[in-house]
């Protein structure tokens, strides 16, 4: 806590790794709040894991019991709106409603003024009589405006109540404790208010805000978010939990997409527009549509086209000429004075139409706020033709619905630091915490944290970190290992065949994995978690493995939360799932909810064209060919593996076994496997706990460990 407090005082970012269940949230939150209180800052703590949000709320409530802090838990409009309208409609409703409230206030003031002047005129004041006549004229005009807005304008009655009724009781309630967004919604629903707008207004000047990554990583939302706080960025301290997820979240926020139906809608929209810029807009949009459709027609074989379903299917559109097939098709199809000139005209026209739609909805001429497809299409095309470097990768995908086959163009963001670096540069300081942040230098490079990436500050003892780098410009780095007794856990690296993709269909390999999993399940006194590289592999072994306990399969379309609750209510179950799913991190399996966890294989992500583009982008950005594979593939994979292992042994009294089922995890095969070994990718103090073991001996080791823990209710199983 002291190191974090000192780092904030020096305006330095903090990279903080601590094992699961060791109190990272409080260790970060307490010094941040202490510093913020003395220096008039606001702390924003953020995560993308629902369970962690609930944990933040509990921690904030616990702090509030001892020292009053003003806390707001913020959630987006989509889940807070009482009348279920889109963002653009909501914006127009707010504008019209505020205009009505302002005019009603003017009307009340004018009525009061004319009453005063009437009294004065009755007392013989001739000037008052003349002045009242002018006020009455103005009063009549304002009354007409109010009546028009009431009769013809689109008004949000809930927001109108926010503006015109007494909300002091709500804000006293809001700041009296840490309220969840659901509680705010329910209060507003009963009182006839707009809970989302009340929450926005209630954020100004608070001590702590709990929110989702979305509010910080999206540049436009972040600007509004800080404005609602009433803070400049330099007066904000950001704390990110599960910070190993920032890279993927930032990439999602930076990626742009445009589907074929939007292009069709834009051209239809132009048919009803009378403007000199219509021809220019039609030329560029229709040419881009031609480039898109021709590119996926050419890329799809006949058989592939027939097999396309309702999931997006990526296609290769790279071209030896240096630009992608869509761009080349667009340039070939375009006919006009110059596509950049026409594109600028299309953007201007789109902006004009968008403002027109806003005014039409605001004035009540339309019942819904129309979205401008011309602006959406022209804006995306403008980004597409200017994307000439490796920070983005052009992708075309296709899918099929009831209307048939259609395509989508996408600018896939390869470098997340284009989103994150401006954030970290603008705020006072940031604390990034997770159980799996290392290697810190990779994280610093990828996200642009602290300006300069530093060597990790590891803790071999698991108690306190060594001093971080003396470079005062870089982030402070701290890593605390396992805090719970080593005697209550075992981590086994099992010498089974390497599960390369080419080996997964080998019958002998499958038999070895099946038998080993059956041993793990049999010699676990309770529930077993098994993570695979994919849902397909999870289903394969769900069908193969024989167990006396109940098997559970995590599959698409099934609620992961309900499955988790059902599984943890069991006492002898086995859960088959993907390490890339939602049950591998941010989820606690305490005590006998899961005694053993198995990671089968090295769960590398699907190495498709997108991943290859990310590899190239990292290699180019850091001028290091090896950085591509390390930054894009190896490090995220090992982080995922470490997250999965951390699902068990969550407290000092807990105990359990973690199994790494693949020879690439073993120390003994490091030299033999060479570059394929991943043993060295784990932090040093974790490697010292890895015990190499033959698959046939695993059951004996587990039997002995659980016997030492006195874990068996009755006689243990016989090997």
Structural account:
Helices cover 50% and strands 13% of the residues. It is an alpha/beta fold and 719 residues long. The protein is globular. The strands form 3 sheets. Strands 3-4-2-5-10-1-11 form a 7-stranded parallel β-sheet, sandwiched between helices.
Weakly predicted, low-confidence segments: 452-470
Q: Estimate the global geometry from the Cα principal axes.
A: globular
* Average pLDDT rating: 90
Strand adjacency order, main sheet: 3-4-2-5-10-1-11
By secondary-structure content and strand pairing, the structural class works out as: alpha/beta
Major pleated sheet: 7 strands, parallel
Strand content: 5-15%
Q: What fraction, in percent, of the residue positions are helical?
A: 40-55%
Q: Count of DSSP E strands?
A: 18
Q: How many alpha or pi helices?
A: 29
Instruction: Report the oligomer.
Output: single chain
- What gyration radius follows from the Cα positions, in whole Å? 30 Å
């Amino acid at each position: 806590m002291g190191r974090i407090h000192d780092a904030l005082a020096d305006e330095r970012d903090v990279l903080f790794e601590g094992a699961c269940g060791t109190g990272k949230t409080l260790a970060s939150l307490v010094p941040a709040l202490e510093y913020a209180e003395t220096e008039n800052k606001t702390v924003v703590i953020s995560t993308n894991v629902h369970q962690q949000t609930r944990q933040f709320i509990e921690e904030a409530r616990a702090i509030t019991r001892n020292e009053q802090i003003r806390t707001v838990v913020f959630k987006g409009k989509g889940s807070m709106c009482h009348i279920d309208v889109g963002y653009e409609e909501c914006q127009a409703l707010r504008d019209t409603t505020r205009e009505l409230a302002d005019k009603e206030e003017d009307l009340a003031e004018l009525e009061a003024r004319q009453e005063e002047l009437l009294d004065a005129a009755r007392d013989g004041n001739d000037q008052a009589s003349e002045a009242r006549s002018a006020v009455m004229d103005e009063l009549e005009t304002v009354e007409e405006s109010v009546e028009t807005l009431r009769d013809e304008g689109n008004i949000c009655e809930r927001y109108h109540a926010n503006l015109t009724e007494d909300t002091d009781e709500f804000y006293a309630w809001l700041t009296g404790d840490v309220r969840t967004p659901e509680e705010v919604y329910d209060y507003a629903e009963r009182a006839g208010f707009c809970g989302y707008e009340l929450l926005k207004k209630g954020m100004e000047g608070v001590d702590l805000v709990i929110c989702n990554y979305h509010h910080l990583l999206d540049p436009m939302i972040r600007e509004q978010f800080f404005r609602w706080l009433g803070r400049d960025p330099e007066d904000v301290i950001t704390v990110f939990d599960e910070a190993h997820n920032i890279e993927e979240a930032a990439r999602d926020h930076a990626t742009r997409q445009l589907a074929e139906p939007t292009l069709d809608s834009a051209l239809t929209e132009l048919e009803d527009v009378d403007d000199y810029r219509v021809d220019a807009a039609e030329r560029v949009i229709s040419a881009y549509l031609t480039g898109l459709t021709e590119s996926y027609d050419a890329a799809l074989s006949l058989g592939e086209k027939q097999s396309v379903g309702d999931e997006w299917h990526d296609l290769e559109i790279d071209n030896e000429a240096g630009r992608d097939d869509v761009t080349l098709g667009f340039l070939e199809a375009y006919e006009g004075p110059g596509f950049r000139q026409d594109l600028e005209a299309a953007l201007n026209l789109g902006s004009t139409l968008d403002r027109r739609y806003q005014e039409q909805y605001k004035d009540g001429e339309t019942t819904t706020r129309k979205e401008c497809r011309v602006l959406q299409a022209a804006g995306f095309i403008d980004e597409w033709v200017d994307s000439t470097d490796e920070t983005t990768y052009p992708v075309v995908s296709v899918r099929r619905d009831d209307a048939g086959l259609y395509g989508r163009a996408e600018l896939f963001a390869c470098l997340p630091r284009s989103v994150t670096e401006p954030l970290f540069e603008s705020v006072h300081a940031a604390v990034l915490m997770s159980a799996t942040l290392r290697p810190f230098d990779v994280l610093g490079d990828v996200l642009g944290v602290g300006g300069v990436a530093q060597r990790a500050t590891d803790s071999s003892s698991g108690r306190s970190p060594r001093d971080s780098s003396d470079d005062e410009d870089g982030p402070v780095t701290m890593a605390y290992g396992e805090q719970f007794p080593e005697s209550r856990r075992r981590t086994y690296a099992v010498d089974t065949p390497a599960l390369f993709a080419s080996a997964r269909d080998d019958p002998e390999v499958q038999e070895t994995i099946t038998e080993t999993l059956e041993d793990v399940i049999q010699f676990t006194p309770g529930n077993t978690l098994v993570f695979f590289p994919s849902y397909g592999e999870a289903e394969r072994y769900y069908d193969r493995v024989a167990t006396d306990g109940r098997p559970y399969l995590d599959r698409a379309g099934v609620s992961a939360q309900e499955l988790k609750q059902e599984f943890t209510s069991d006492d002898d179950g086995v859960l088959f799932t993907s390490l890339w799913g939602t049950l591998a991190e941010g989820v606690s399996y305490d005590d006998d909810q899961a005694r053993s966890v198995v990671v089968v294989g090295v769960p590398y992500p699907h190495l498709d064209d997108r991943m290859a583009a990310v590899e190239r982008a990292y290699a180019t950005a850091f001028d290091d060919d090896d950085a591509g594979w390390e930054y894009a593939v190896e490090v995220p994979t090992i982080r995922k593996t470490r997250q999965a292992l951390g699902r068990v042994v969550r407290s000092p009294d807990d105990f359990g076994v973690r199994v790494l089922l693949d020879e690439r995890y073993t120390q003994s095969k490091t030299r033999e496997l060479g570059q394929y070994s991943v043993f060295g990718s784990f932090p040093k103090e974790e490697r010292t706990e890895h015990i190499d073991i033959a698959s046939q001996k695993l059951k004996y080791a587990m039997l002995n460990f659980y016997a030492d823990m006195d874990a068996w209710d009755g006689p243990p199983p016989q090997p």
